[in-house]
């Protein structure tokens, strides 16, 4: 059986003195003493992190001294006892930066609209004393106490929501299994990255995150690191063995924690873990992470500033009118203390206190829902942006397909068949030498392969073993491991023993091939170059081809045509096709420096012998076709962007529903359309129209390189179904950038590999698969932990839902708050009427009805048509627009405040006070007015204020039920049962009604705030108004549904 470690590479960049460690176990005790003597002491708690980084010197010593310092061995690694001893130093985890709780507390207490409440509180205290002297009113002090209570409740709620959201996000992030490949006890093992210890030998491949600080001791010639997370620079940094700088942050022979291997592979010795790594020390130096506002938070903050400015303006205007007009013209109408307290109503009226709370709450709600789908959302901005997604550019392998590749077909010059059929023929054949070329296929598949089995799983069946490597190499590894033909001397164990790797050029997206130079271990053994890669790339380098029996024949035009036809056939069935090639390198010196060797191998890439073609099947994920159908129904165009062959890409695109048209246009059609004269449009208008036909397009990477700006205009404007094939990482990024800058497109990219990283970073939303590379997951904003593609339409729906619900919250809050409550202050100041709603009632309404009922809206489920609407335009579609204000001020608001004011005048009229006995009265409202005593007049005002308050409480029920649906009738989506059931709505209604009862009938509240019970008829009449609001809105929705092109539909929100 093959070793889990695989075949060692001896002629890459490494020390030439490894052999001296063959007797390492014999001096283990001595090495422990050396370790204890040489390893730096644990840093003190108050040690300066900058000094600790400056003291790093491991990059300055020789490779062999690295092994000695850390008591490890280049091929054996650490022993179990050493690991247990070193593990006492702590987990390899970077601690979070210390939280500055005082800053958070200040934000909770003074953030949002709380600063207006503080202004109101301070002014109320001043109104109580000294302005309330000589007879300060308990009512004023009660309002002050209530305001500070409101501030405390708001701050507590902000803190609880923030804590809960942080807890949920932390629990989701723990679902990401970060693993590392280490050599321990002579075997490669996959272990949790947190269990790495100093002295571990870590093996890194392309796409891996560096799990700790490593000194590089072995490297491929093309090793590159991405240190952007550490340094902020986007350029790839080459990895070498020798020190290039005395500065540990600048030298290139260290692989630092949280950086990424973007190309090549290497081995390193761990010299620091956890908080002792460079990244850990930088985190401790940097302090708390700076908070950034999300898109909706910015919009709400902008809305908050506008509302606050209006509130302060009208508050100041009210006081100004009192000072220069009312106090002079109508002396005795109001005292200074009363004028300030009544004017505070302007502050409370304009404050939609529930809105900031709902924005904070939305993260918790959405994070919990996404967590159930095993989706890691890095921040709320991701979900918001998903709601705007208009184009989804998806990689193929591992994203649309399972990524679990299986070798299905194999072809030689003289015949081709499935692997199963080939093995059956071998079993039945009397002359196995007819298939002698299969041995060479096995050698190339096993030796020209960067994938490796986990040594801990070698006793399991081949298909159940964990593999470290990309899907293509994994498929070839499993194929070669399971291929055993004694008659042809095909055995994996013998192959690994007989050959030694000397040099490798790993696969990359630009070359489209991988190369390995191997040598027979016999003294007079041969040397071969093994190459595997894309047939269309390698065919030009091939001059000969093998038959199935191993005989060599020239590769002429007829043979090339036959093989190209076979490649196209397999590709059209959705298979990935690989060419396996070789060339003899006998007589070529192999002991060259890595860079020289690399240049030599590129020059020797010629006169290859084509051994066979391999067809690898990678079936689409089961959930992809239905998910793409849902995404397209939501108005989102889905493009495929892949490095695979175009026929393979088109075949998979048809299977999953990205391509639905029989005819597919090409680059020629794009060029023709671009040459036609069309009216000049702004970039914002370059998008398909609703009545445009569905058109499909296939472009290759070569085509992408030739596209002009006019060509891109045609592609973005005219095509709904596009497949980009044979693209490089740079071309993928260019595709995303060109689409983003046209048609106000919000572009999402899905991918799982290193070649997807530039596009993931360039996209508005990067979506990575949980099984993808570490660097892809770092670049993405959203990670599908269980690789469930169907989570994408759910995430789109969540993004649309959070915006939809916040807009509904705004629609609910504004009619009663900044309209109906403000009208009470307006009538008091400008129309000389006793204020129909006290400051206490306004503040109470703000913190109870506004908050409780708006929270219920955040738990609303998606409307039935949410995923059939067009994507929201992030540039033009705002949280509040003119349609929202029409609904607020010219529809619901015009029913609410006249209803409340009408109930006030109805009660006054039943007491014998007509309209002009209440309005424009000013300072005449005193003892003897219309024959009433002052106590009677005060009682009338108290009852009228409570009626106004109760009418507003019940009236908002109609507003709430009205805004739950944009178009659908409440009969089809009520909150009590059915698909839109939301029991928080009726619970909120009951709660606010009970609060109103307590306010009117609570003895203590009556004594302090002057509330009083109201006649029963006004309870009944008040309950009729929400029905009126709801019925009127149902009629509006009916008109919108019946006449979708009408003016009513045009102005509908």
From TrEMBL:
Its main location: membrane. It comes from Pisolithus microcarpus 441. It comes from the Eukaryota. GO terms for cellular component: plasma membrane. It is found in: Cell membrane. PANTHER family: CATION TRANSPORTING ATPASE (PTHR43294:SF21), SODIUM/POTASSIUM-TRANSPORTING ATPASE SUBUNIT ALPHA (PTHR43294). One of its GO terms (molecular function) is P-type sodium:potassium-exchanging transporter activity. SUPFAM superfamilies: Calcium ATPase, transduction domain A (SSF81653), Calcium ATPase, transmembrane domain M (SSF81665), HAD-like (SSF56784), Metal cation-transporting ATPase, ATP-binding domain N (SSF81660). The chain crosses the membrane at residues 105-127, 139-161, 300-325, 809-833, 880-907, 940-963, 983-1002, 1014-1032. Keywords: ATP-binding, Cell membrane, Membrane, Nucleotide-binding, Translocase, Transmembrane, Transmembrane helix. Gene3D superfamilies: Calcium-transporting ATPase, cytoplasmic domain N, Calcium-transporting ATPase, cytoplasmic transduction domain A, Calcium-transporting ATPase, transmembrane domain, HAD superfamily/HAD-like. This is Cation-transporting P-type ATPase N-terminal domain-containing protein. Residues 57-129 form the Cation-transporting P-type ATPase N-terminal domain. GO terms for biological process: intracellular potassium ion homeostasis; intracellular sodium ion homeostasis; potassium ion import across plasma membrane; proton transmembrane transport; sodium ion export across plasma membrane.
């Amino acid at each position: 059986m093959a070793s889990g470690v695989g075949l060692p590479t001896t002629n890459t960049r490494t020390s030439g003195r490894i052999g001296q460690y063959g007797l390492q176990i014999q001096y283990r005790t001595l090495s422990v003493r050396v370790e204890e003597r040489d390893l730096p002491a644990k840093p003190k708690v108050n040690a300066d992190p900058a000094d600790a980084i400056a003291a790093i010197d491991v990059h300055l010593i020789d490779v062999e001294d690295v092994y000695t310092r850390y008591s490890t061995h280049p091929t054996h690694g650490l022993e179990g006892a050493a690991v247990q001893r070193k593990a006492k130093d702590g987990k390899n985890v970077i601690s979070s930066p210390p939280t500055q709780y005082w800053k958070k507390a200040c934000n909770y207490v003074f953030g949002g609209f709380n600063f207006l409440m503080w202004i109101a509180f301070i002014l109320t205290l001043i109104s109580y004393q000294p302005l309330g002297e000589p007879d300060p009113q308990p009512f004023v002090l009660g309002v002050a106490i209530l305001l500070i209570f409101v501030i405390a409740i708001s701050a507590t709620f902000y803190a609880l929501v923030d804590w809960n959201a942080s807890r949920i996000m932390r629990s989701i992030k723990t679902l990401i299994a970060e693993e590392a490949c280490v050599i321990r006890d002579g075997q490669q093992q996959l272990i949790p990255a947190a269990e790495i210890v100093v002295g571990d030998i870590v093996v890194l491949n392309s796409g891996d995150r560096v799990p700790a600080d490593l000194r590089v001791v072995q490297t491929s010639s093309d090793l590159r690191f991405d240190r952007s997370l550490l340094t902020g620079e986007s350029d790839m940094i080459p990895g070498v063995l020798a020190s290039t700088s005395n500065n540990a942050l600048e030298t290139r022979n260290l692989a630092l924690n949280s950086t990424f291997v973007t190309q090549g592979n290497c081995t390193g010795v761990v010299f620091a873990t956890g908080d002792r790594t460079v990244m850990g020390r930088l985190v401790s130096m940097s302090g708390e992470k700076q908070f950034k506002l999300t898109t909706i938070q910015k919009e709400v903050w902008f809305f908050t500033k506008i509302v606050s400015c209006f509130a302060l303006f009208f508050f100041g205007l009210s006081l100004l009118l009192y000072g220069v007009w009312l106090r002079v013209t109508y002396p005795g109408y109001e005292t200074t203390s009363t004028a300030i307290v009544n004017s505070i109503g302007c502050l409370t009226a304009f404050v939609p206190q529930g809105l900031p709370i709902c924005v904070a709450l939305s993260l918790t709600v959405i994070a919990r829902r996404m967590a159930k789908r095993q989706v890691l959302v890095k921040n709320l901005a991701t979900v918001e942006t998903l709601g705007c997604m208009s184009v989804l550019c998806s990689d193929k392998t591992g994203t649309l397909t399972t990524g679990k590749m299986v070798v299905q077909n194999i072809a030689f010059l003289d015949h081709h068949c499935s692997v199963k059929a080939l093995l059956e023929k071998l079993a039945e054949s009397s002359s196995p030498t007819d298939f002698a070329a299969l041995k060479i296929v096995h050698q190339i598949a096993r030796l020209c392969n960067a994938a490796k089995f986990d040594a801990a799983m070698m006793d399991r069946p081949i298909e159940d073993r964990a593999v470290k490597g990309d899907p293509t190499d994994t498929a070839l590894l499993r194929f070669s491991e399971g291929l055993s033909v004694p008659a042809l001397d095909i055995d994996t164990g013998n192959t690994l023993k007989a050959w030694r790797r000397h040099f490798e050029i790993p696969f990359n997206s630009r070359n489209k091939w991988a190369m390995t130079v191997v040598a027979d271990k016999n003294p007079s053994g041969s040397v071969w170059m093994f190459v595997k890669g894309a047939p269309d790339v390698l065919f030009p380098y091939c001059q000969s081809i093998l038959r199935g029996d191993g005989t060599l024949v020239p590769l002429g035009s007829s043979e090339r045509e036959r093989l190209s036809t076979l490649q196209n056939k397999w590709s059209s069935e959705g298979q990935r096709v690989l060419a396996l090639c070789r060339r003899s390198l006998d007589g070529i010196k192999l002991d060259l420096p890595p860079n020289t060797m690399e240049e030599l191998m590129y020059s020797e890439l010629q006169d290859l012998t084509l051994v066979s073609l391999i067809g690898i099947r990678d079936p689409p994920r089961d959930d992809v076709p239905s998910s793409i159908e849902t995404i397209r129904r939501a108005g989102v165009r889905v493009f495929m962007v892949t490095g695979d062959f175009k026929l393979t890409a088109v075949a998979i695109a048809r299977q999953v529903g990205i391509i639905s048209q029989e005819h597919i246009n090409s680059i020629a059609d794009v060029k023709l359309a671009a040459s036609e004269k069309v009216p000049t449009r702004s970039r914002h208008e370059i998008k398909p129209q609703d009545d445009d036909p569905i058109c499909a397009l296939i472009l290759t990477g070569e085509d992408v390189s030739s596209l002009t700006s006019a060509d891109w205009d045609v592609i973005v404007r005219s095509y709904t179904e596009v497949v980009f094939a044979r693209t490089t990482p740079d071309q993928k990024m260019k595709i995303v950038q060109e689409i983003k800058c046209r048609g106000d497109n919000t572009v999402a990219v899905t991918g799982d590999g290193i070649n997807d990283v530039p596009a993931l970073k360039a996209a508005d939303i990067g979506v990575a698969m949980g099984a993808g590379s570490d660097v892809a997951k770092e670049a993405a904003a959203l990670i599908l932990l269980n690789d469930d593609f169907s989570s994408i339409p759910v995430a789109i729906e969540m993004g649309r839902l959070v915006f939809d619900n916040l807009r509904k919250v705004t629609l609910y809050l504004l009619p009663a708050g900044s309209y109906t409550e403000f009208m009470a202050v307006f009538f008091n100041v400008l129309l000389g009427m006793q204020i129909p709603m006290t400051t206490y009632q306004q503040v109470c309404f703000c913190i109870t009805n506004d908050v409780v009922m708006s929270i219920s809206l955040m738990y609303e489920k998606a409307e039935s048509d949410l995923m059939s609407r067009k994507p929201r335009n992030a540039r033009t579609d705002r949280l509040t627009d003119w349609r929202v204000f029409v609904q607020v001020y010219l529809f619901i608001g015009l029913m609410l405040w006249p209803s409340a004011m009408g109930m006030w005048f109805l009660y006054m009229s039943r007491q014998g006070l007509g309209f002009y006995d209440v309005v424009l009265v000013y300072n005449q409202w005193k003892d003897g007015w219309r024959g009433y005593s002052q106590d009677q007049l005060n009682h009338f005002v108290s009852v009228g204020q409570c009626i106004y308050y109760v009418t507003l409480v019940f009236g908002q029920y109609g507003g709430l039920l009205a805004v739950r649906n944009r178009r659908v009738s409440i009969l089809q989506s009520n909150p009590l049962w059915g698909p839109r059931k939301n029991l928080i709505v009726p619970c909120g209604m009951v709660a606010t009604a009970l609060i109103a009862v307590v306010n009117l009938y609570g003895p203590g509240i009556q004594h302090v705030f002057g509330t009083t019970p109201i006649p029963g008829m006004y309870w009944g009449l008040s309950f009729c108004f929400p029905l009126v609001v709801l019925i009127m809105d149902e009629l509006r929705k009916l008109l919108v549904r019946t006449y979708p092109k009408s003016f009513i539909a045009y102005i509908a929100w």
